[in-house]
Design goal:
about 35% strand; alpha+beta; 7-stranded mixed β-sheet; about 200 residues
Length: about 200
């Protein structure tokens, strides 16, 4: 049986929430995001309790062996220590992940995660689109995920379905700001000069 876990004030990373995407040719389109949680946060312990329960229900006496195999192969689990999330180009741990735990959750294109507004209601239509733009890497969210067992030709593993997200507050955005390259360019010949800002009426003599 799937287990739903609710998180508060988790940090969002790698959000792909506005449009479902396939991350490999021919792959299934999905919505996805990582939740980053401090290692001292009891919410992660609750999550791991759900993992153990789901594994026991699915694999019975083999659950311990399956989870040990998942621990040895990160591709078979949706959670782990933040230090495992390494940029494959720079080989540096991604920003925000050191000293943390992460949970990678996704949702099928046909069942997108719900966006919950500040009033605690499900956002629809234009409101949903507007909320979707608020979710960026580095912000803080409340989230609901469903833990489920993968047991198919791709192996035995533990996955998390992204059920719902609620924006909580801003945080420092992950990644470097776009550099300003304007110093490399000059004015275009014949282009009109930028107009000076109009003086407010109450400042006019």
């Amino acid at each position: 049986m799937a287990e739903i876990i609710y998180f508060t004030n988790a940090r969002l990373s790698f959000p792909n929430l506005v449009e479902a995407k396939a991350f490999q040719d021919g792959g299934t389109k999905k919505f996805s995001a990582d939740l980053i949680i401090p290692k001292t946060d009891p919410q992660f312990a609750a999550f791991m309790g759900a993992v153990g329960k789901v594994a026991t229900e699915e694999w019975k006496e083999h659950a311990t062996a399956v989870l040990q195999n998942c621990q040895a192969n990160r591709k078979l689990r949706c959670y782990g220590a933040g230090e495992e999330k390494v940029n494959q180009t720079t080989f540096a741990v991604y920003e925000g992940y050191p000293e943390m735990y992460y949970i990678s959750a996704s949702a099928d294109e046909a069942h997108p995660p719900q966006f919950i507004n500040a009033a605690g209601k499900v956002a629809e239509g234009i409101e949903r689109a507007e909320l979707g733009r608020k979710f960026y890497g580095g912000c803080y969210v409340n989230a609901a995920v469903r833990v489920w067992p993968q047991n198919n030709t791709f192996g035995k593993g533990i996955r998390a379905q992204l059920i719902a997200l609620q924006f909580v507050k801003d945080g420092e955005a992950f990644g470097e700001a776009q550099p300003d390259f304007s110093a490399m360019f000059g004015a275009v010949a014949g282009a009109p000069a930028a107009a000076a800002p109009a003086m407010p009426a109450f400042m006019m003599p």
